[in-house]
Amino acid sequence: MNRPGSVSLLRLDAVGKQFPGGVTAVEGVSLDIAEGDFLALLGPSGCGKSTLLRMIAGLIEPSEGRLAWGADMAGRIGFVFQEPTLMPWATALRNVALPLELAGTPRAEAERRAREALARVDLTGFESAWPRTLSGGMKMRVSIARALVTRPRLLLMDEPFAALDEITRHRLNEDLLRLWRDERFTTVFVTHSTFESVFLAERILVMSPRPGRIAAELHVPAEDRATPEFRTSSSYAAHCRAVSHALSAAMAA
Amino acid sequence: MNRALRILAPTIVGLLFLGGWEWLVQARDIPPYILPGPVLIGQTLVRDWASLLPSLVITAQITFAALFVAATLGLALAILFAQSRVVEMSLYPYAVILQVTPIVAIAPLIIIWADNLWLALLICAWIVAFFPILANTTTGLNSVDPNLRDLFRLYRASRWQVLVRLQLPTALPYFLAGLRISGGLSLIGAIVAEFVAGTGGSSSGLASRILETGYQLQIPRMFAALVLVSAFGILIFLCLTLVSHLLLRRWHEEAK
Ligand SMILES: Nc1ncnc2c1ncn2[C@@H]1O[C@H](COP(=O)(O)OP(=O)(O)O)[C@@H](O)[C@H]1O
Ligand SMILES: [Mg+2]
Q: Is residue A210 part of a domain?
């Protein structure tokens, strides 16, 4: 399903996960992720999206199938959780510098790159702010800056904006898209929002619940998204309708 | 307004209580060897200050030494527990046994075994003060946000990095809460142990002053010593609260 000439970053081969106790969270997922893809995993709550994402991150082992990487990914995966997951005892800057410091980057260098990452998410001036003084949207920006500070090849996001209000969510969607266009890190974005998946992703994988499988794949071509005011365009509405139908079909199956 | 009230209200209650006490003693003509009034206690405190102060210093030394050892050892043991479930499972029950055994029951043994009374009192105070720090810090080290733990795993953090950058900061508020409890407890431990020892004579902290004034029916002096014990306990609590506030004010919700 890849664009011709694109380089495969990761291939999932019949990947499944059965938890001890018998819950099959994910079953038979085969998938090819190309370098530079923006891929959305869309499905209802409990259908195994987080489990799949955590397997890709290497946080849990698949119980079936395998993952084949096209490149050395050590330290090159960024992860954004649903909650900002910041260390409350550290400033925004120290939070963002964490991945670099864990890898042994000298402090001054880590700080410089953390400043740069904060600037990329429009948080210049908030370097020494404590997490509890930041709004929900700003905390999420810090969290994204932390994920981007290592210049990851793969960015994994687990419903990162689900807990935010709609206005903040729209802004963050736009900013994320702008970052992705500039830097082309491969992105897997988990969401349960049809609208969010169409707005962001070129490839939308619709998951069906119990056990979690990939029920359908839909595409939103870059040309369509390039239309001005995409969110209010008829093309956006049409894509949303298609994805929505696919989701209903997946749920009914 | 609210802040002023928090100081003003208990002060008024305290003054009313002391006033009522003094009035009762005067009106009923209660003899000072039964119940001295606050004024007489105050006068005794001033008069006997020079002879009571050395006892306070000794009790304070034991209390602080016990608190220091309890904090250091409690923290060290909690870190050890966090490194290994097996060690935790093997040792924790004994920490609990130490905690639930009444100190007055084992103090005589400790006083016999330790060849120096000061050390014996220190051990007793430590036994009483140790558990809250151990229990709280252990809880704190295990309370790490699971997502943050995953984040550290994602970036291949070493055990040491997880401990220093994640577990210890998470445990800090728990440790400090334990320390606040233990501050009061180590004073109680020091006093109780000295009471036990004091029946055999020969120690010189505030508890022996209280015992000896009891034998000699110097009740105003006994009250003066009691006031010193309470005041010292309150001072410890306030100091530890201040330390905790200073360390946590930047990030911990509770410490705002
Ligand atoms: N660690 C676990 N142990 C047992 N069951 C789990 C675990 N994690 C998730 N599950 C189960 O797997 C299923 C999928 O969970 P999850 O991947 O979190 O779904 P989603 O992210 O789509 O909401 C759910 O039924 C959930 O209860
Ligand atoms: Mg989830």
A: no
Q: What is the ipTM of this complex?
A: 0.90
Q: Is A103 strand, coil or helix?
A: coil
**Given this model, what pLDDT does residue A145 score?**
93
Looking at the 3D structure of chain A, how many domains does it have?
Answer: 1
Cα dihedral B79, B81, B87, B88 in deg (nearest 10): 160
A24 Cβ closer than 6 Å to some ligand 1 atom: no
Pick the more confident residue, A71 or A162.
A162
Residue A99 to chain B, least CA–CA distance (Å): 6
Residue B147 lies in a domain: yes
User: By three-state DSSP, how is residue A213 classified?
Assistant: strand
In a domain, residue B4? The reply is no
Domain that holds residue A121: 85-152
Neighbours of A135 (CB within 10 A): 11
Q: Which atom of ligand 1 is nearest to the CA of A21?
A: 4
Q: Burial level of A161, CB count in 10 A (0-12/13-18/19+)?
A: buried
Query: Which chain B residues are Cβ-neighbours of A74 within 8 angstroms?
Result: 156
Q: Which ligand is nearest to the CA of A162?
A: 2
Residue pair A126/A96 in contact by the 8 Å Cβ criterion: no
Angle (CA) B89-B91-B92 rounded to 5° is: 70
**Would A113 be classed as within a structural domain?**
yes
- Residues B168, B172, B178, B180: is their CA dihedral positive or negative? positive
Cβ(A45) to ligand 1 under 6 A?
A: yes
Partners of B169 on chain A (C-beta within 8 Å) are 87, 89-90
Residue A174 placed within a domain: no
Range of the structural domain that residue B94 is part of: 42-248
Q: What CATH number is given to the structural domain containing B236?
A: 1.10.3720.10
Is residue B148 a part of any domain in this protein? Answer: yes
Reported pTM: 0.86
Taking only the tens place, the pLDDT of each residue in A137-158 is 999 999 999 999 999 999 999 9
The model's pLDDT over B102-156, given as tens digits with 9 standing for 90+, comes to 888 888 888 888 888 888 889 989 999 999 999 999 999 999 999 999 999 999 9
Q: Could you tell me if the CB of A48 is within 6 A of ligand 1?
A: yes
Instruction: Please tell me the total number of residues recorded for chain B in this structure.
Output: 256
Instruction: Answer yes or no: is B46 within a domain.
Output: yes
pLDDT tens for A29-54 read: 899 998 889 999 999 888 889 999 99
